[in-house]
Amino acid sequence: MGLKSDYLREVKAFQPSPSYAANAVKAFLVGGTLCALAQWLSDWYGGVFAASPLAAQLWASIVMAGLAIFVTAVGKYDDFSQFAGAGATMLIMGLANALASAAIEHRSEGWTAGVAGQMFKAGGASVIYGLIAAYVLGLVWP
Amino acid sequence: MKRVGKQTWVFDDGVYIQAAAAVVGPLEADGPLGSYFDICHRDLYCGEATWELAERRLMREAVDCCLQKAGVSAEEVDLFLAGDLLNQNATSNYVARELPIPFLCLFGACSTSMQTLAAAAALIAGGLADRALAATSSHNATAERQFRYPTELGVQKPKTATFTVTGAGAALVGRAPGRWRVRAATIGKVVDAGLKNPLDMGAAMAPAAADTIEQHFRDLGASPGDYDLIVTGDLSRVGSVIVRELLAESGYDVTDVYNDCGLMIYRPDQKVLAGGSGCACSAVVTYGYLLQELARGTFRRLFVVATGALLSQTMVQQKQSIPAIAHGVVIEADGQEPG
């Protein structure tokens, strides 16, 4: 058997496979750390400002999203994601990065056609399916 | 000029590269070939407001630098052949807008460097031009945002993904003897191996490269030993192994003389995954490093095979496979007897 006889099958031996175990460990550690940080923030808001649990969670999410947008703006979120993989999608940091990166990218085409028009290019699908999933779950989980 | 075999043009009455220039971005300047490039930019914007303007500047500088080295004004050039990766070949068209030279725009994805050089050589040999300028460019950020994702989007790229080279290369081809002689060119066929992953273009392009190299050997009755170096454009760590294996299956052992521009342009620790890609990859390595080493006598005869994945975002989203092409040009240090 050679490459020429069945390229699509034989070529797989030449394609490096992802490091599944290492990626899973990195995603678990980074994602877990981020979630623990958000939980600590939420508890802190609840304690210091006597915020309701829902309000405290919202504030924690806003801070995490803001952090993601800041790291995106200084050009490091892509490097962080290459390392952390799925860990970098935790909470709404992945969505914040998707919207911010597209908005920054298309600043060169102006505020309307560029920033506003293209902002949901990368994150639009997760917004749509997130809404649908939330609606469906809301029906079965009162 | 004559055609030998099915796909190879042999330029036996003298077609020369009179001058060449290579302009690169920061990561390429920092790579192992950094000292071979004519102009190195410190940032990706190259002093411009947008990345697209930066790419245009790269090509314009390569053209100007090449003409300056040759001591030729733009008015004395009969034809400009160029192409790039942007939609509608935007960079090339806008650079040509600034030049008083009749213009042929070519698209061969990352095979454009040798596509334009081969076409320029053929037009010179055919007597249709005395001097022709061949140029190509690519820019990491313009390619990323057109073909992949926003540059700052957090996605984990696979090990097979390549990194688009920021740079531009230009070569002035003519009848008057120069330091390098264009000896032959093999025009490739489109080969589609059926792969659909745009983040593994090395595997998609390797069959096209192997096809062109084999055809070249068959047309000329040549063998790998006739060349000091056979270099592919941007097959990267994945595709370069595959093309050697494909050629070995056909009975050609290129191991001792083979390399890939995508592996030469960056150091392994530069975080470029499988290696460099893009139109500029083969262009700056050839017009910067390889030609200088030919002039120095390190190599006497090269076969540069620029590889292009003819990728369309729309076609890939419609689950179509990725066609690929490769064009090869034989370049010799001048003073060589025909082999």
Structure description:
The complex is a heterodimer of chains A (142) and B (339). Chain A is built from 7 helices and no strands. Chain A is extended, with a radius of gyration of 20 Å. Chain A has helices at residues 7-10, 20-48, 53-73, 77-84, 93-105, 111-118, 124-140. In chain B, strands 1, 2, 3, 4, 5, 6, 7, 9, 10, 11, 12, 14 and 15 form a 13-stranded mixed β-sheet that branches. In chain B, helix 6 (201-220) packs parallel to helix 7 (236-249). Chain B starts with a strand and ends in a 6-residue tail after the last strand. The A-B interface holds A 2-4, 7-8, 11, 14-16, 18, 23, 72, 75, 77-78, 80-82, 84-86, 88-89, 94, 97-98, 100-102, 104-106, 108, 121-122 and B 49-52, 145, 149-160, 193-195, 200, 203, 207, 238, 241-242, 245-246, 249-250.
How are the SSEs placed, and which strands pair?
The complex is a heterodimer of chains A (142) and B (339).
Chain A: H1 7-10, H2 20-48, H3 53-73, H4 77-84, H5 93-105, H6 111-118, H7 124-140
Helix pairs in contact in A: 2-3, 3-5, 5-6
Chain B: E1 2-4, E2 8-10, E3 16-24, H1 26-29, E4 39-40, H2 51-70, E5 79-83, H3 90-97, E6 103-105, H4 112-125, E7 131-138, H5 140-147, E8 163-164, E9 167-174, E10 180-186, H6 201-220, E11 229-232, H7 236-249, E12 258-260, H8 261-264, E13 276-277, H9 279-296, E14 301-309, H10 313-317, E15 324-333
Parallel strand pairs in B: 3-4, 5-6, 5-7, 8-13, 11-12, 11-14
Antiparallel strand pairs in B: 1-2, 2-10, 3-9, 3-10, 7-9, 10-15, 14-15
